[in-house]
Amino acid sequence: MSEQERGVSVLYQNEENLWTPDEFTERLKSVGRSFYHDKHPFHVAMHEGKLSREQIRGWVANRYYYQKSVPIKDAAILSNLPSRELRRQWIGRIIDHDGMHGGDGGIEAWLKLGEAVGLSREEVEQEVRVVPGVRFAVDAYVNFARTKPWIEAVASSLTELFSPDLISKRMKVLERLYPWIDKSGFDYFQNRLTQAPRDSDTALKLVIAYCQTPAKQRRAVAALRFKCDVLWAQLDAIEKAFPSKT
Amino acid sequence: MSEQERGVSVLYQNEENLWTPDEFTERLKSVGRSFYHDKHPFHVAMHEGKLSREQIRGWVANRYYYQKSVPIKDAAILSNLPSRELRRQWIGRIIDHDGMHGGDGGIEAWLKLGEAVGLSREEVEQEVRVVPGVRFAVDAYVNFARTKPWIEAVASSLTELFSPDLISKRMKVLERLYPWIDKSGFDYFQNRLTQAPRDSDTALKLVIAYCQTPAKQRRAVAALRFKCDVLWAQLDAIEKAFPSKT
């Protein structure tokens, strides 16, 4: 999809009515259908088995920067949530990523994925392969969570509506088409298959409950579109830095 | 102590050397000896049994605004911490205040204290008695945590070095001199007697470990002084809004 096609937003259709919960959910899902990064050429190539070891390593090493920023983003949202009831619903996300002890948590699992694709823990943690475009995109996401109304930050997390499909496909693909990757590195994906639906279910309920004006509904859709752009821009930067040899 | 005396800071003594951990700890503790709110006239009057029911209620109702802001402040710090190891050390504070289920957590315990002094849960939660000076002071604290370097925000939490003494005295005083208060409301204080030393121990170790230049040490001392001012200003505002009848 070209940048121009991606720029033809589903958001602005001169409608000013309040969507029903079903219509609203459908609008959110349609953002995913159009703009989620499963359709990015780099992901398409990954799923066709066309990426080199260096490209897979570049992706894992760069995506680490996103992973390590997720709990920072979630703590920013936590700090903006207006009640302890909402914080109680959100705080588990931070624990999912950070863990509480030893090797627990998603960041640790991502480091194991790094080792499984042949990257040392140190080079991943030192972020030597992380390219500026990935940093800028991820930092924009953290900044969005810090500074926007909390419900928009929650809406931006709704890419998790779309991730289980992508992740379950990816696990099969990596196992079949990239047999050189040590399968012990797949724990991160396995865990997300149960965490992501639970998290997106919570977030979707909040977004539907708290976006009770047409303007708020549209800002939620825009926040999700923004998040799709954050993910897409990371793959653009990774693709540029780790091009195919052909 | 007059404002002027309080203004004679221990911070600025034209010293530019790095303090040893012991010297540094002593500087931090000396801030507490001079500026912690145990010496505020309102607390002194409380501990002499001189406060009216209305004054106790005013204090509990206003202090609720501080309690409810503490996890917001801690989530802001969490979001600024540079590693998951540090976040693992900090996240428990949020759970201590928010709880994870039902009636757990410090905010809930504070609401029970409100009921024990004759305030309904609703009037405390609706913040009808909270005065502007308390809001400004507490909001300044949250803003400090959001915007200052994380180690200064951590240093600002070190008033917990001084709180167990004050709280254990307060529990005895409230029980003896204010027998009309339902003792079932004292859970908050009881819990803090074990939480505060653990938290201040963690925070003090971090401050000593991460403040390795004279300038950083002095900023940590200044942060703690700032926090003492936050607590002191709350009591000033409460004292003004709920004066003695004499």
Oligomer: homodimer
| Overall average residue pLDDT of chain A | 94
Silhouette of chain A: globular
Describe the sheet with the most strands of chain A.
Answer: none
Portion in beta strands of chain A: under 5%
Gap from first CA to last CA of chain A: 21 Å
What is the count of helical runs of chain A? 12
Q: Spell out the helices and strands of chain A N to C.
A: HHHHHHHHHHHH
Structural class label of chain A: mainly alpha
Total strands of chain A: the figure is 0
Percent in helix of chain A: over 70%
In short:
The structure is a homodimer of 246-residue chains. Chain A is an all-alpha fold.
Task: Describe it.
Two copies of one chain form a homodimer. Helices cover 72% and strands 0% of the residues of chain A. Chain A is an all-alpha fold and 246 residues long. In chain A, helix 8 (132-147) packs across helix 9, helix 8 packs antiparallel against helix 12 and helix 9 (150-156) crosses helix 11 (187-210). The longest helix of chain A has 28 residues, at 53-80. Chain A starts with a helix and ends in a 5-residue tail after the last helix. Chain A binds chain B through residues 68, 71-73, 75-76, 78-79, 81, 84, 87-88, 91, 94-95, 97-101, 105, 107, 146, and chain B through 68, 71-73, 75-76, 78-79, 81, 84, 87-88, 91, 94-95, 97-101, 105, 107, 146.
